[in-house]
Amino acid sequence: MVELITVGLTPPLLIAMAFSLPIFTLVVKRKLFYDIYALVALTIALILSLYNYYLVFYVVRGPIIYPFGGWPPPVGIVYEVDTLSAYFGIIVSVVMLLIGIYSVWYLRGVSGYEWYYTLLLGLEAGMIGCIYTGDAFNLFVMLEVLSVAAYGLVAFYRTSHEAIEAGIKYSLIGAVATTIYFIALVFIYGAFGTLNMADIAFKSRTASEFPFSGVIVGNIHLASAIALALSMWAFTFKAAVVPNHFWLPDAHPAAPTPISAALSGLVVKVGVYAIIRFLYTIYGLDTLQPISNVVSIMMKVLIVLGMVSALIASALMIVQTDIKRLIAYSTIMHVGFIVTGLSLGTRLGLEASLYHTINHAVGKALLFLSAGVLINVARSRNIDELSGVGRYLQLTTLTLILSILSLEGLPPLAGFFSKLLLYEAFISSGLAILAVVLIVSSAFALLAYIKLLYGVYFKLPTREFNKVKEEWVYLTPLLILTALLIVLGITAPLFVNEVLSRISEELTNPMKYIMAAEKVIRVLGG
Amino acid sequence: MDVLTLTVFTTTLMLLVGLIVLISYLVVRKEGSSKSGSEPYLCGESMDDFKAYISVGSSNLYWGSISAILKKFYEVLRDRVHTGILNDWLVLMSLWFFTAVIISFMVVFVGG
């Protein structure tokens, strides 16, 4: 029973803490209170996520389910945490806590910190909700929770024209994307008679009766084909895959730096998660014909889009003058690699993509947060105006360099191993051209990173930065993230064998996910 | 009428209403109104950045290669694709949307 509570508790607790935070503004004015409040909430989320991970991987050794209100689906909503959800939950909660600690430093002297923390907690609630839910409609709801918080955070600097414009454009197209996903759900419900993920997964593979929701009620082939097309469009927007990436290079630089780290490191990964959930669990290559054909074709299209993303983004990285914009394009490139890997349809491709997901989340958060310190000191995002500032912030620059080296793929840092695994996956799938694109994109990105490092460290300072002093408040998350990059790198074989292979095994054979839900539904449905 | 047919019918109806509204707008809108939509936007790519500094800055490191070899490529990528204009984005995003829908229909009805 304890495991049920921890699964069901995490997103509602975060939402409750986010929504109750503004009430305190009526009586408490001290920033310290809100810093502690947010850190406590983020720490609780991390503890719960760690516990859920421990249960799924080592105790239950299978999915754990929480039915809200004790109602069986499709009447009630269930949260179902399998190895994939537990893995993504850990990534989100660890990085978000470190971003929270960094925010304590970042928000000094910034007004509106109470709204910042409200939205930050809302953002994490949305992300964890998307990851934990076992209901396709609840995924839509949680995507909205996540998106509304993200729109608000992008436009946090209300006096900045750029932030307002980026926020409006992001929210306009984001609303279109979630609406399109909603229409996809209408087709799914119209044909399957349910929105429970395990239920849909079962019916798309057998077309037979599932407990409580009964038999299929429409043409599941046509509905699934339309739903897959619409949902992939919506999820590629969330993941910022070309051509649905345009919002990202505007939104990420305009947002406060810790939010840029969260958006680049985590929010786009929710899109990646949803793509995996739809292409492997709900549907998959083992579904009935012609659904499996649609899945196969969608995967091929995503391979093309992923590689185009990598090439275009890496080419655009070279010509950037804004450090945050350069890093934002790097995110599009890495998401391109991840989406290409998972779309190969092989276990190796999945493992490589999942490995690159965590490495990119950690590396990109570190890069953004380190760059944020330099920006804060130089009071500019222009690489030329950051000239030599890194010389005054030795530790911060060291973490910046290590994050770049990891993202570029230098051993023994984590990024090297995931890129190597991606390379192997491409070659073993007989798609050598993808390996070439991986190398060419990385080479383009290297040119951009050299420009960045030359600007912030090797170039002589054009002005004095005498009163600069490094502080442990922001160094702590930077050093922890750096340590994570090293640990993830040197434990690569163990990590792949113990964690990633289990996730890829469950994803390519989703019966465990389906049967866990069926068991609970039989009990609840009577 | 079964649920799926009803869903397709309702969605098509919504599309028709949307098209009627769009056509009505196009018919009645005033001559001389903005067609490019570029004026209100601040974001997007700009080539002017290269001219901003007298000395060679880090942002100009690859200026030679870019202007000599990749000028056309970047002109298309920055000035035509990544304009920062919402209308331009929507055209490209719609292409992916309709491609996905058409592909899925073809697989179901023609076979894949």
Summary keywords:
heterodimer, A: about 525 residues, mainly alpha, 19 helices, B: about 110 residues, 4 helices, about 60% helix, elongated
Summarize the entry for a quick read.
The complex is a heterodimer of chains A (526) and B (112). Chain A is built from 19 helices and two strands.
Task: Note the topology.
The complex is a heterodimer of chains A (about 525) and B (about 110).
Chain A: H1 2-24, H2 31-59, E1 64-67, E2 78-81, H3 83-106, H4 113-132, H5 136-154, H6 161-192, H7 197-206, H8 220-239, H9 247-254, H10 257-282, H11 291-318, H12 323-342, H13 347-378, H14 394-408, H15 414-428, H16 432-458, H17 472-490, H18 492-508, H19 511-525
Antiparallel strand pairs in A: 1-2
Chain B: H1 3-28, H2 63-68, H3 71-81, H4 86-109
N- to C-terminal separation of chain B?
Answer: 29 Å
Low-confidence stretches of chain A: none
What's the N-to-C terminus distance of chain A? 19 Å
Strand order, sheet with most strands of chain A: 1-2
Low-confidence parts of chain B, pLDDT < 50 over ≥5 residues?
none
Instruction: Give the strand tally of chain B.
Output: 0
Shape estimate of chain A: globular
Order of helices and strands of chain B: HHHH
What is the string of helix and strand elements of chain A? Answer: HHEEHHHHHHHHHHHHHHHHH
Q: Can you give a write-up of this model?
A:
The complex is a heterodimer of chains A (526) and B (112). With 526 residues, chain A is an all-alpha fold. Chain A has one domain (2-525). In chain A, 76% of the residues lie in helices and 2% in strands. The two termini of chain A are 19 Å apart. The mean pLDDT of chain A is 93. Chain B is mainly alpha-helical. Helix content of chain B is 60%, strand content 0%. Chain B has helices at residues 3-28, 63-68, 71-81, 86-109. Chains A and B meet through helix 6, helix 8, helix 9, helix 11 and helix 16 of A and helix 1, helix 3 and helix 4 of B.
